[in-house]
Predict the 3D structure of the following.
Amino acid sequence: MNEQMQAVIDAINANGSFVISTHVNPEGDAIGSEVALALALTKIGKKVTLINKDSVPEFLKFLPGSDMVRVADTIVEPHDAFLVVDCEPARTGIKGQDSFPIKTVINIDHHITNPKTADVYWVDAEAAAAGEMVYDLILAMDIPIDKDIATNLYTTIFTDTGSFRYSNTDEPALVKSGKLLSYGVNTWEISENVYESKSYGRMKLLGLVLAGLEVGGDGMLAWVTVLEDFYRQTGTSAEDTDGFINYARAVKGVELALLFREAGPDKVKMSFRSKGRVDVSGLASELGGGGHPNAAGVVMTGAIAEIKAIVIPKAEALVIKTFRETFAVKA
Ligand SMILES: [Mn+2]
């Protein structure tokens, strides 16, 4: 067992009450990890409160125990420890440690960008999902795993690997997923909730967005546009566009995908997703945003047509330059 994991176990054993939280806009790994932790710590007599800044997304409400999550942005009662999983503490958006002093901040995360500033931290960038770390922790603490805990943990790996498709799908991720099935996890129930429970309006919205799919940059750049009027036509909202950019990236030959989304009369939110060979973080920071090499974003002020006229040529230049350099190295 590594020292950081042992430090987390010691900190859990030394404290009685915990606020558990995760990042804003939580997804499967965030919710599954925090709920599995809450269920496990409750089994060994700890007092646990789950507080998230944002509510549990509709498609994850099937997760057993997810109804324990309270939506708030402050800690409203005294607790011994603040336990943050799948992000650094700042990304929880939770305040209130001042009004109710917390003895210890404990952090379990798999993001390489974690600043490691919590009182006690365990950061493992090799883990495919934070839930993989939670699984190891529960085993190391000898807490019995049941079907509810296993369902949450399986969902963390299933979703953070893009259903075992992304490059983080490695042997530990698959071995642990396999072992979790022995507790009675219903894989189809999870797949159905995660992938086949979209609203009719969302699918109609996807149709409008894909009708506007465009390709440029010698076929290496694709982009889609979401206008506010589309929501009115389909009875949807911005959160229904989640994942749409992956359809643009899925075009054969496309290396970089962009999604432009109107977010008010003069505001445009953009997401950039690379297949892995183009680094988009530089383009995002140049435009005033930020992110990772494969996934970045930026918010800009102005009319959507004007912003597209600025961003698309820059993105086309980036993909073309990246591949010219690749070919130069090969030659
Ligand atoms: Mn994660």
In short: The two ends are 46 Å apart (CA to CA). Residues 3-195 form a domain with the inorganic pyrophosphatase (n-terminal core) fold (CATH 3.90.1640.10).
